[in-house]
Design brief:
- The complex is a heterodimer of chains A (about 140) and B (about 675).
- By secondary structure, chain A is an alpha+beta fold.
- Chain A has a domain of about 90 residues: Beta Barrel (OB fold (Dihydrolipoamide Acetyltransferase, E2P)), CATH 2.40.50.140.
- Helices cover about 20% and strands about 30% of the residues of chain A.
- In chain A, strands 2-4-5-7-6 form a five-stranded mixed beta barrel.
- In chain A, helix 2 links the parallel strand 1 and strand 2.
- The chains are: A alpha+beta (about 140), B alpha+beta (about 675).
- The interface between A and B is large, with 49 and 72 residues.
């Protein structure tokens, strides 16, 4: 057999087996990004995927029940009730009106069961709306932004 | 100072523009004065960028809260140290800092080669000016760090104002690694510009000889070294600060820094094929091009919000500038390649599947497949959005499934490759070279199994690691023995002498040894344990051989933050070992909080304790304890890799000439005869 052929066979074995492993890993870990409005329209297999969704925590909706935390996530005029069942303590920034990114699956009752919750304060590094000093051009010649 | 800085930056833009346009004219006319003036414009641009960068630092240190960038990333109570490093904590400043580091490289290249490589340097300088011009365009006109705060007044005009205090530096950035991690990583990213410029210049100029390959290789090693340090420091920062117990999470930004490292590593190996055998020239040039493109892509990923990440900077439209620049780079590379393709014709063919050449080919294949896997996993949300209009992300299982087998294959090649001779290896020499290390590998694996390493991948990793370490030890032993016999030196001095005689080869082995240590550390992850528990004062947690007792909780007011501390006594076999202080820090300025992990680290394992939070319902604190075996090996391995790279950069004491393309590798006259053939054949630049 020619050396080039041997090398080509070796390469093909590596590439094909890696592609197969990649496909397995993809099936195991794929997560769909959806908006809250989209979630209510999902059905069948689409609703069974791992889903990541973001929204605003409705003020007053956070309830700590034994073993889980329930809250309502708002976005695009729709709402989604969420039940967080993960082990990690919720982040400190997870409060009323904070921006939360949750990951988990849709339960049969339409309630979202979250395994991970990330949160950040809505006002992070930005001036509150009232005072709103917007960065604007400077007098310097480079300030043509 | 802001006006001074922004003027300097604008002037730098003008100089870089001249260096580019004047450089192109200089190449066309070959007029020596034009070449000189373009080069000097390039140097001037660098100096002006230095001034602009220092003026931003000055604005931070003097608390100039009339500047938007300073307000967003600093506050009065921040220590001066962090005020300086706040330069690279946000989008605009880090882009300027990027420019600054690039200028350091460009300046040293322009100065050190000013009287050398007359045909090549004008091309190099022009390409560098082009890259610099792009970053200066961004820093001047898209994301200027010199924006002042202003507000529209009643008459519609703009009025400048200053704030009393800034919004503070992001707490996760207020750690020592923050000072050294970004400069190293950025030095890696920007450093790959230099080999890119040399490779592209050589191709455009059809520069004769192999000199440019040596230059490209040297600068790639420098950039590669910084990239390695940057990646590992980033991993260490994530480990010590983020508090999730790991150091690598396949986050898009981590992946972005890993991609050029993979192709850079591939190049550093395959370039030897070109030096020794005149093969793979097209492949090498494209590896250098792609490494540079991946650096730009990495910057694009980090800064555009294209993929979501813990590191991601604010979403901005800066991405389209990078996309545009990337397209220009691709177009220029394709043009240069198709114009001068014949310049890269290979001089030799693959002789045997069991040869050094073929081990390099497989090494490159593995690294490239790894690169494609990481790239496609990272960009999966983007592509799936285009193709199916569903945004789908893939997580760690995807990366681990592919990268673990590839890593092990690479580890195997690390051991076998250096033992194979160029062109063709006889079965006899293979047997002689592999017997010892293979036995060592299985003994090492057996010991690991006896100590409880039952995971398949980890066990394979331990076997291969001992095997590779065995091959390296064997090579050192054989080489040092020759020197010892011919001199009065002892073993250690002989090994030192051996290293200095051929720094490339033995520096390379040292790097390999460091990589082996890193693999050992990575394999330790298979045995990680963790416990999370809500405990009050007096409560205990057990993990592995340790028992942790929460003695007390206290608070400590620091200048810039308030720390809540757990005082945790660690006991092993009912004897106190030490006290750990995991912290949670609250930063009032920006209402953020951060964790400070407490780690008790030994070569065997890390006891990693996090004050994870307080149950929002019951107010009971939660402790999160990890027992991570062998983590320290990763950091020590990194140190060894860096030392090896530095050794490889030192010129060898006796330089040995090996001509590329020669049918049989020449043996230096002084060594022939006295040195065993397996050593002598590979003496030289490998």
């Amino acid at each position: 057999m020619k050396k080039q052929t041997k090398f080509a066979i070796g390469s093909a074995v590596i590439v094909v087996s890696m592609a197969f492993l990649a496909w397995l890993g993809y099936g195991e870990s794929k997560t769909y990004y959806h908006t809250i409005a989209e979630i209510s329209t999902l059905h069948g297999s689409a609703a069974a995927h791992r889903i990541r969704v973001g929204g605003t925590v409705q003020p007053g909706s956070i309830q700590h029940v034994s073993g889980r935390t329930d809250f309502i996530l708002l976005g695009e005029g729709k709402s989604l009730s969420v039940s967080y069942t993960g082990n990690d303590p919720l982040p400190d920034s997870f409060v009323d009106n904070s921006q939360a990114l949750i990951e988990g699956r849709l339960g049969p009752d339409g309630k979202f069961v979250a395994e991970h919750v990330q949160a950040k304060c809505a006002s992070k590094y930005e001036a509150a709306p009232g005072e709103a000093p917007r960065p604007a051009s400077s007098a310097s010649p480079s300030g043509k932004t | 100072m802001d006006v001074f800085g922004s003027f300097a930056l604008l002037l730098a833009f003008v100089c870089a523009l001249y260096a580019l346009v004047g450089g192109i004219a200089a190449i066309a006319t070959r007029h020596p004065l034009l070449i000189k003036s373009a080069r000097q414009a390039g140097m001037a641009a660098c100096c002006l960028i230095f001034l602009a960068t220092f003026s931003v630092v000055y604005l931070f240190v003097t608390d100039s809260f009339s500047m938007a960038y300073v307000v967003s990333h600093s506050n009065r109570d921040l220590s001066t140290f962090f005020k300086v490093v706040a330069l690279w904590s946000g989008q605009e400043g880090s882009l300027l800092f990027w420019c600054f580091l690039l200028s350091l490289y460009i300046f040293s290249v322009l100065v050190s080669y000013r009287n050398k490589h007359g045909e090549l340097m004008p091309h190099v300088a022009t390409i560098l000016a082009g890259v610099q011009l792009f970053f200066l365009t961004i820093s001047n006109f898209v994301a200027s760090p010199f924006k002042a705060l202003a507000i529209a007044n009643a008459s519609g005009g703009l009025e400048y104002f200053a704030k009393a205090d800034g919004n503070g530096l992001n707490p996760v950035l207020q750690y020592p690694e923050m000072i050294i991690h970004p400069p190293n990583l950025y030095s890696g990213y920007t450093g790959f510009t230099i080999p890119f410029a040399f490779a592209l210049a050589a191709l455009l100029a059809r520069y004769p000889g192999e000199k440019w390959i040596h230059l490209t290789r040297k600068w790639t090693m420098i950039a590669w070294c910084f990239q390695t340090i940057g990646i590992l420091l980033g991993a260490h920062w994530a480990y010590a600060v983020l508090g999730w117990g790991g150091y690598w999470g396949w986050d898009p930004v981590e992946n972005a820094s890993f991609l050029p490292w993979l192709t850079g590593t591939a190049f550093l190996h395959s370039v030897m094929m070109q030096e020794k055998r005149g093969m793979m020239k097209v492949w090498n040039v494209w590896l250098v091009f792609i490494t540079f493109m991946l650096c730009i892509l990495g910057t694009l990923l980090t800064r555009s919000g294209l993929v979501s990440s813990v590191h991601a900077f604010a979403q901005s439209d800066i991405g389209k500038w990078f996309v545009g620049f990337l397209l220009i780079v691709i177009a220029v590379c394709l043009y240069a390649y198709f114009k001068n393709r014949d310049y890269l014709k290979s001089e030799n063919q693959l002789d045997s599947i069991v040869s050094r050449e073929s081990s390099f080919l497989f090494n490159n294949l593995v690294l490239l497949v790894a690169c494609i896997a990481v790239l496609s996993g990272t960009l999966f949300p983007v592509f799936s959005d285009w193709i199916t209009s569903n945004r789908i992300s893939v997580g760690p299982p995807f990366f681990n499934k592919v990268l673990i087998p590839l890593g092990l294959l690479l580890l195997f090649l690390t051991g076998v490759g250096p033992l194979l001779a160029w062109r063709k290896t006889s079965g006899e020499s293979l047997k002689r070279n592999l017997l010892g290390p293979t036995v060592a590998g299985f003994v090492g694996g057996g010991i690991a199994y006896a100590l409880g390493a039952k995971d398949v991948f980890a066990l394979i990793c331990f076997i291969l690691s001992t095997f590779v370490a065995g091959t390296i030890a064997q090579e050192y032993y054989r080489g040092a023995k020759v020197i010892k016999v011919r001199s009065t030196l002892n073993w250690l001095s002989s090994a030192m002498e051996l290293t200095l005689r051929n720094t490339r080869r033995y520096g390379g082995y040292t790097v390999h040894f460091g990589i082996v240590m890193i693999f050992v550390g990575l394999a330790g992850q298979a045995f990680n344990q963790e416990v999370q528990k809500e405990i009050g004062v007096g409560g205990t947690v057990k993990i592995g051989p340790y028992e942790l007792l929460l003695q007390a909780l206290d608070q400590k007011q620091e200048k810039n933050y308030m720390a809540e501390r757990m005082i945790v006594e660690v006991m092993k076999d009912h004897k106190p070992v030490m006290i750990l202080f995991p912290e949670r820090r609250n930063f009032p300025t920006n209402q953020e909080s951060g964790t400070m992990v407490a780690i008790y680290s030994t070569l065997r394992e890390d006891l990693y304790v996090v004050y994870a939070g307080v149950n929002q319902g019951s107010d009971v604190p939660t402790i999160h304890v990890f027992l991570n075996p062998l983590v320290k090996w990763v950091w020590f391995g990194g140190v060894v890799v860096v030392m090896g790279t530095i050794v490889a950069l030192i010129p060898s004491r006796h330089s040995v000439l090996v001509l590329a393309g020669s049918k049989a590798p020449k043996v230096a006259p002084g060594f022939a005869g006295a040195v065993p053939s397996s050593v002598a054949v590979r003496e030289g630049h490998d």
